[in-house]
Amino acid sequence: AQKITQTQPGMFVQEKEAVTLDCTYDTSDPSYGLFWYKQPSSGEMIFLIYQGSYDQQNATEGRYSLNFQKARKSANLVISASQLGDSAMYFCAMREGDSNYQLIWGAGTKLIIKP
Amino acid sequence: EPEVTQTPSHQVTQMGQEVILRCVPISNHLYFYWYRQILGQKVEFLVSFYNNEISEKSEIFDDQFSVERPDGSNFTLKIRSTKLEDSAMYFCASFQGIYEQYFGPGTRLTVT
C-alpha cells in the first residue's frame, strides 16, 4: 500500500491565487514527520515546510502553510498568493519515528502558475 | 547557511563501468542518505548511514552499490557495474537529528 499519496499529478493555477496541493499518508507509528519539498526544473530539492505528528498547530513558513488533519491523515500544502516562480514539482514526504529517519515520498504534483 | 554539496553535477558513463558519486554533507550532521529519482518518477530511498556504517538499505541497494565515508568529510556512493536502468538523479542528504533533511543539488547519472 502507498504510504504517501498525492492525487493531483498536475495543476494549473492563475498567478496570485491560492493553491492547495493534496497529500494523504498512512502510518501506524504515533511519531512521524511530514515534509513538503519543491523541485524546480533545475532539479534541486528545496525544503519548504515541516509538520510533526505531535505539533498542535499547523506549520507556516511565509507563503506556505500546512493544513494538517491528523484524523484524516492528510497534510495538504497551501501556497498563498502564488507567483510564477512557484511553478515546479511539489513532493510530500514522511519520516516515521521507528525508522532510520529516511523519507518516504509521494509521486509529486506538477504545479504550473499561469500569468 | 551550511549546505550539502555533490560532485559531479552530471556524469555520463558506459554500461558496465564503475562510477563514484561524491557528497560533502553538513559537518555536524549525524545521518547521511542517498536517494535516487528516475526521470519523471518519485524519489526512492537507497541507503542510510549512521555512525560510520549502513543503518538501513532498500531493495534497490543491491551488491552493485556501496557507500563509504572515508575521511569523515566525504560521503560516496559507488556503483560497480552500471546498468542502463541506473540512469537517474542521485541525491545525497544529511540530517542532524531534528527537522528536515538537507539535500544536495544532485548528480544526474546517464548510463549509455
List keywords for this structure.
heterodimer, A: 115 residues, mainly beta, 6-stranded mixed β-sheet, 4-stranded antiparallel β-sheet, 12 strands, 0% helix, 50% strand, B: 112 residues, 7-stranded mixed β-sheet, 11 strands
Give a quick precis of the structure.
Chain A has 115 residues and is mostly beta strands. Chain A contains no helices and 12 strands. With 112 residues, chain B is mainly beta.
List the helices and strands and how they pair.
The complex is a heterodimer of chains A (115) and B (112).
Chain A: E1 4-5, E2 10-14, E3 19-21, E4 24-25, E5 32-39, E6 46-52, E7 60-61, E8 64-69, E9 74-79, E10 88-96, E11 104-105, E12 109-114
Parallel strand pairs in A: 2-12
Antiparallel strand pairs in A: 1-4, 3-9, 5-6, 5-10, 7-8, 8-9, 10-11, 10-12
Chain B: E1 5-7, E2 10-13, E3 19-24, E4 31-37, E5 43-50, E6 53-57, E7 65-68, E8 75-79, E9 88-95, E10 102-103, E11 107-111
Parallel strand pairs in B: 2-11
Antiparallel strand pairs in B: 1-3, 3-8, 4-5, 4-9, 5-6, 7-8, 9-10, 9-11
Instruction: Give average pLDDT of chain B, whole number.
Output: 93
Question: Which word captures the global form of chain A?
Answer: globular
Choose one word for the global shape of chain B.
globular
Computed CA radius of gyration of chain B, to the nearest angstrom: 13 Å
Please give the oligomerization state of what you see.
heterodimer
> Cα distance, first to last residue of chain A?
38 Å
Q: Count every beta strand of chain B, where a strand is a DSSP E run of 2 or more residues.
A: 11
Give the SSE order of chain A as H and E letters. EEEEEEEEEEEE
- What is the overall number of helices of chain A? 0
Specify which chain pair forms the largest interface. A-B, 21 and 25 residues
Structural class of chain B: mainly beta
Specify the biggest β-sheet of chain A: 6 strands, mixed
Instruction: Bin the helical content of chain A.
Output: under 10%
Q: Give the biggest beta sheet of chain B.
A: 7 strands, mixed
Q: Name the average pLDDT of chain A.
A: 94
- CA distance, first residue to last residue of chain B: 37 Å
- Spans where pLDDT lies below 50 across 5 or more residues of chain B: none
Share in β-strands of chain A: over 45%
The helix/strand class of chain A is: mainly beta
